[in-house]
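Could you please consider the sequence and fold following this short note?
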Amino acid sequence: EIARLNAMGAAPLRQLQLAQALLQTHQSSEHGRIQQLLQSVLSNDSEEARQLHPLARLLTAHQAQLRRLEEQNDRQSQLVREGQKRVEQLSERLEALRAIERSMPTRPAR
């Protein structure tokens, strides 16, 4: 669908359709292209483009929200990785302490 829309030219409706199709791919590498397509529709003052402006604004807001969520997800993923690393480090320390404890002579009962 994306290839077909690319080949159809730069009419405002096609630009909007292409932006929608690219949004569906959920590829962050396409954010710039999507923004460019939507801005092109919004800056176009033709009658066809003006009729599409509300939808283009809605898609722009949707893309911005997706971007924020992706960034938040990336930050949360990093925190999880850091937390897992910390758990591993603490587990290793605990195991080392247990090994030391096992190697100590047992105390006689009093």
